[in-house]
Amino acid sequence: MIIRNENVFLLQTKNSSYFLQVLPSGHVEHIHYGKSILSGGQYEELLKGDKEDSKIVLQMAKAMEIKHRHEGGNMIVYSTEHYPLCLEVMPLEMSSFGKGDIREPLIEVSHADGSLTSDFLFDSAEIFDEISALDTLPSSYDDGQELKFESGALDKASQLVLTLKDKEYGLRLELIYKVYPECDTITRTSVLYNDSQEKVVVDRLLSNQLDFQKVGLKLTSFHGRWADEMNMSDSICKAGKVVNEEISAGESGSRSNPFTMVSDPNATEEAGDVYGLNLIYSGNHYSALSANGTFLSRFVSGIQPTGFSWTLDAGEKFEAPEAVMTFSDKGFHGMSTKMHDFVRKHIVRGVWRDKERPILINNWEATYFDFDEGKLLRIAKDAAKAGIELFVLDDGWFGKRNDDKAGLGDWTVNTKKLPDGLKGLADKINGLGMSFGLWVEPEMVNEDSDLFRAHPEWAVRIPNRPHSLGRNQMILDFTRKDVQDYIIDAMSKVFSSANISYIKWDMNRVFSDTFSRELPAERMKEFTHRYYLGLYRVMGELTRKFPEILFEGCSSGGNRFDLGILSYFPQIWGSDDTDAVCRMDIQRGYSYGYPVNSYGAHVSACPNHQTLHTVPLETRFSVAAFGCFGYELNLSELSDEQKKQIADQVAFYKEWRKVFQFGDFYRLDKYRFMAVSKDKSLAVALIFQKECRPNNDYVALRTMGLDPDKVYRIANRQVKINIKAFGSLINTMAPIHVKQNGIIHVMIDKFYKMQSEKEEITTTGGVANSCGVRLGPDYGGTGYGEDTRMFRTDDTRLYVIAEVQE
Q: For the chain, what percent of residues have pLDDT higher than 90?
């Protein structure tokens, strides 16, 4: 709901309020964003549209506005007409250089006369009942969901457009706000129009500016590197500036993900004010939290200004990416749930948005480049027997692609590996009862490729200068329409050449030596943004042309994990690191801002190919189940026992898939996860044993999200235990001496498996949420019984929770 009374505006969601007003000077004051300033009754009355009721908005504005009465020391007074207005002490909706607000600006413009001063003042406002999309960039959309009150009142998505003008220079700035009441989310962006007769240079146009009337807030950001993404970092900003940015990598990046949180320093998972903030963009990004001497904080986010500028000719416009904001006073979990709901319903789109994702097997870590059709089919046959639903052929199927030094750009089948082509292999996979998927890397080219030899000018590099490579490859110049058209045509031929149900779209290097032969020198700082305009066009065309294909984004794992990609591809590969222990941290990091069914997670071989770490197969499964689930190992080389384990895992996951993929996600603690169905009738919880300690009889499962008034049955997932795991302890029970790992030991293990402990507890959701349920004892060296839990370092347990129906 958006309410206007005179020049006061209230953007209202179910549990939050965003409040602003136009000052007499024409500046737009930011009054409040956070906990709802309306009671439920007031909200419903305002929905009826009674103008008398909306007077309360004016009253609230007067109570909450900054009481600025005096010129402050060496501050700049905006004008004699509006004395003593000093912009430095005002919370504002947008800020620029030159008129006294010396904090982080939303916009920087170099005018034709050399001036850097801008003065955007309110001109008009429009409220729309329908959401509009940006012309050049992906943006959120309204899927028709409504917020319903018990009285029958309804609220739905709406849009506010504030128009500000710099009359001295003929520039017009639109601040666009979208309100999604049912998921407590508001988005905003900035669009600059050049209504003058001269060109200007846009040095900065950010998407979001959010001012707070206090300092000492905490900025949480997520950092890392290849195979170690989404490490959480907290910084308290009492003064100065804390920055989260990707400067020149050319992608949103594993080094710094664009998702951030601003919170009260004492906020917890379940309590405290938390703001979730993100950007619908895949290029270099910038966000910062700053605090000044007048006890105000400011958060800004948008396109990275370093290395960026945009020449705006007369009559043109420039659109900044859309920024996303959500707020909860119920801590980090409260914020995450709202952000997850928003991403699922207003970012992800297409036929796969609400569909359960298939269980896949990918051949990469099983074969790398060394495969032929026979080797692939052996893996596929075992996968089909285990109940796996999708076989994915990874890198190496095209051109002269036997390593990473050649072939990229030549999207024709290597018939030495696949004599019957993609169609022949896909038909055989389909014949096993599985769907077929394929890996591509369309944005890249190897120097050793027919494409590069035919079109060297299509590669991103500076002419007549040395070029820095990444993974032996160069980037194709997606700022060029001829390159975009070529990729659309080449990929269309590949995607239609066989019955392809899934595409993994990879991008395996960051940018270097950025240069386009199509751009004049004075526009070269536009390169990266123009690249993404081109990429979004390509992805948009292909996803519209092939709507039934499930696309998964990938960029060396999670190096381009952002809402821009999720606007086209329903899921993204979370990390090239498949080590289950590492993945606990990585997936926990993603969970703050992204839903579980947006990141891919696979069970791989041990020792792990990234860390050489060995953990039990059940642990690998338990962790990967909290993601878009699959396998990445050579099934044909596993033992019969391991194949049975995988078949059991697949059957279990299918039974609980909807809860894993679409349930509300809870971080019980650092090494415990939980997913709860929307109706709170079903749940799955994970406990991970980071370090085993003896005589631990005090383990409890304290849940979150269960209905306190419902009765639930809580049971562990039982698995078979390998007798060899007890080592020489077998001799405490065996009638004869058994040599550890000897022939007799191996034979006993082959024909006899122990059953894990059986937990079965019935209790109310209130007890499970508040106190937790006490679990059976861990093995402690003095005895083992049917209720004893064998729970070693790196072991996990899954607990299924179901409402007891009367």
A: 86
Structure tokens at 458: 């299509």
As a whole number of angstroms, the distance between CA 92 and CA 23 comes to 10
Q: Beta strand 711-716 with 760-764: parallel, antiparallel or unpaired?
A: antiparallel
Give the pLDDT mean for 607-618. Answer: 96
Look over the chain and give the mean of its residue pLDDT values, rounded to a whole number: 95
Both tokens assigned to 99 = 């008129």
Radius of gyration of the chain (CA): 29
Element counts in the chain: helices (H) and strands (E): 15, 42
The C-alpha angle 329, 593, 688, rounded to 5 degrees, equals 95
Q: Give the pair of three-digit tokens for residue 94.
A: 């947008």
Q: Name 374's Cβ contacts closer than 8 Å, sequence gap at least 6.
A: none
Identify the helix (H) or strand (E) that includes residue 537.
helix 527-545
| 422-431 residues labelled b (16+ CB within 10 A) or e (exposed) | beebbebbee
- SS3 letters across 39-84: CHHHHHHHHCCCCCCCHHHHHHHHHHCCCCCCCCCCCCCCCCCCCC
Q: For residue 585, give the 3-state DSSP assignment.
A: helix
HSE of 663, CA atoms in CB hemisphere, 13 A: 27
What is the predicted pLDDT for the residue at 788?
84
Rounded distance between C-alpha atoms, residue 726 and residue 739, angstroms: 12
* pTM of the entire predicted model: 0.96
**From residue 638, how far is each of 617, 643, 722 by CA, in Å?**
11, 6, 15
Contacts of 561 (CB under 8 A, 6+ apart): 229, 252, 254, 257, 553, 555, 572, 574, 590, 594, 599
Catalytically active residues are 506, 576
Are the C-beta atoms of residues 146 and 156 closer than 8 Å to each other? yes
- Burial label, 736 (beta-carbon count in 10 A; 0-12, 13-18, 19+): exposed
Determine if the peptide bond prior to 138 is cis (ω within 30°).
no
